[in-house]
Amino acid sequence: MAFDAFYLTAVLEEVRALSEPRVEKIHQPARDTVIIHFKHRDGRAKLLFAMNPTAPRLHLTAASPENPAEPPMFCMLLRKHLSGARLVSVTQPPMERCAVLTFDCIDEMGDRVQKKLVAELMGRTCNLYLLSPEDRIIDCLRRIGLDESAKRQALPGLYYQSPEPVTKHNPMELTAGDYEKILSAPGADLLSQRLMDELGGLSPLICREAALYAAADVDARLENLEIAPVAQKLFLFFSENLNHPVPSYFCQNGIPKQFAFCPFRQYGGCEEAQGFSELLDLYYTVRDQKDAMRQKGQAVRKTVQNLCTRLKKKMAIQQKELTATHDRERLRQLGDIVTANIHRIVKGSRVLQAEDFYDEEMKVIDIPISPILSPQQNAAKFYKDYTRMKNAEKELTHQLEIGAQELDYLQSVLEELGRAATEQELEEIRQELRDAGYLRSAGDKKKIRQKKLPPMHFVSTDGFSIYVGRNNRQNEELTFKTARKDDIWLHAEKVHGSHVIIACAGKPVPDDTVTQAAQLAAYYAETASGQNIAVDVTPVRQVKRIPGGKPGMVIYHTYRTVYVNPYPDITVDALNASKP
Q1: pTM as predicted
Q2: Of 348, 504, 313, 498, nearest to 413 (Cα)?
Q3: Among the listed residues 2, 1, 3, 45, the one whose alpha carbon sits nearest the alpha carbon of residue 20
Q4: DSSP reduced 3-state for 108
Q5: 332 and 389 in contact (C-beta within 8 Å)?
Q6: Which of 50, 81, 117, 302 is disulfide-compatible with 101, CB 3.0–4.6 A?
Q7: How far apart are CA 247 and CA 241, in angstroms?
């Protein structure tokens, strides 16, 4: 990726194109993400500030991430100072990933003042500052105190200190002769590395692309090049692309892997996006959503994984004990031999030597006995151990069956956690685990009532409604309460996944609808990344609960199997998915 200073310049031009924008709403969906909603002459727009050190950025967005029930303090502060404010200017320090947004605001006294929102997008030190008219820090997203190893402090009340200016050459101001001087001076041997060392505001991707354009090789070495023609080509490359940027990206298997403010050829070709902000939305939105949900669900996932680990260890011990019971018949035989040779046992002896009449050769064997027990008690002990192991086999077999069901359930929860796309879905899984006793109750903590989340709803191309459960409790309710007995039930074969219902009320279901429902069943299961997935199809009446089983655990015997690719050419829009 290449979110460098010049890509930011192109994004800020899109922000400046908004006609008299005013702040309508401010949200902070995550700790390091702020979204400002603008209302302008042509409609509405949302400006996203992502201050995650791994991928800091600023751009207009169409995404609507889920907001917390209670807004964070920094969000409340921004609302207090910027609600209703008009954005009057957007500036950027030369060659720096930093943007300064100036707002016309009304202060507490009713006077018109200008306040600034400064977004620094420089890796580890990225931060978002709200500044007073005197450039004092009202507050910032990340406070940096005296005891931290940082060149600049960031605390409320301090004067804001701008980042140190970039001392490299500005490619916007260079001529062909300047490039010739840069390439002729001592420095790195690789052309791309020399450009990185000498030019400011550019990412490694752009420097490699410039080397490819000027020298036909991303790894070209200066010692093998004629400086003058290469310098002329570099001048043409930067003049064209910096003055006429084009949002470009490279896709692999349908997933954007690289993007830049100009076309690039080093990956074999690229595609052009409609806008710079739209490209960042395309690249980051889905990934950020998955990362955010992964972080939010990390504690629950770790708890469930630990439960699975402990359960597997317990079952391994039980299996070992069960294996030991398979030799219990020998204990009964030894009891018979001791009983038949009681007269040979001498008081205080530890070993009885007797013929093994269960052996064809009648070999003499040594049978260990207890010196503190009578001969009759020694014989009874073998029978008692035999009976104990017989009972243990029955109980251990039962416990292993229960453990297998519980492990299967916990693994299905892990699969659900991997598919959870919203905080509400995650909370439903938490509540399911609380009800099952795996998580502690929230106690006296104030609960915020949330609307019950319905199953996912799709409409097939033939007009049939298709419902997909989001978790085990929804699967249970969808199959045994919502669906009719003559509806069609689908599930990916022998893996954890969602229950899928075709609401047909006994009407014949076209093959296309069955195929689309099966593709959904394969997609919302562990098989989402596979091919030729087996999906079982049967009427709802054939699906039964497992007696004493966990939510969503079912059995069925009469069914047919179809083979599909998970969700291949079907999109949510194509199936007209309705969101809650």
Answers
A1: 0.60
A2: 498
A3: 45
A4: coil
A5: no
A6: 117
A7: 11
| Alpha carbons within 13 A on the beta-carbon side of 109 | 3
Question: What's the Cα-to-Cα distance from 339 to each of 245, 336, 349, 378, 389, rounded to whole Å?
Answer: 98, 5, 16, 9, 20
Structure letter (DSSP) for residue 481:
I
Cβ atoms of 567 and 520 within 8 Å: the answer is yes
Burial annotation 473-502 (CB, 10 A radius, 16+ → b, else e):
bbbbbbbeebbeeebbbbbbbebbbbbbbb
Complete DSSP assignment for 316-370: HHHHHHHHHHTTTHHHHHHHHHHHHTGGGPPTT-SEEEEE-TTSTT--EEEEE--
Q: Are 86 and 18 in contact (CB under 8 A)?
A: no
Unique residue bearing structure tokens 């505001």: 201
Encoded tokens for 31: 């700790």
- pLDDT of 228 reads 93
34: nearest Cα among 53, 58, 14, 55: 58
Per-residue pLDDT, 528: 82
Q: How many residues does the chain have?
A: 580
- How far is the C-alpha of 165 from the C-alpha of 145, rounded, in Å? 22
Highest mean pLDDT among 326-330, 451-455, 511-515 belongs to 511-515
pLDDT at 579: 38
Task: Report the alpha-carbon distance of residue 132 to residue 156 in Å, rounded.
Answer: 10
Token digits of residue 237: 């490359």
CA angle 42, 92, 211 (to 5 degrees): 105
**Assigned token pair, 452:** 């019950």
* pLDDT score for 149: 56
Q: Which of 323, 325, 329 is nearest to 391 (CA)?
A: 325
Q: Mean pLDDT over all residues of the chain?
A: 88
The CA distance from 478 to 468, in Å, is 8
The distance from CA 174 to its chain's CA centroid, rounded to whole angstroms, is: 44
pLDDT band (50, 70, 90) for residue 254:
low
Structure tokens at 164: 């140190």
Question: For residue 99, what are the CA distances in angstroms to 105, 114, 116, 132, 159?
Answer: 19, 16, 10, 16, 18
Reading the block at residue 396, the tokens are 């251990």
Q: Which amino acid is at 419?
A: R
Provide the angle, in degrees to the nearest 10, between the axes of the packed helices 204-215 and 191-198.
130
Identify the residue with better confidence: 566 or 196. 196
CB atoms within 10 A of CB 519: 23
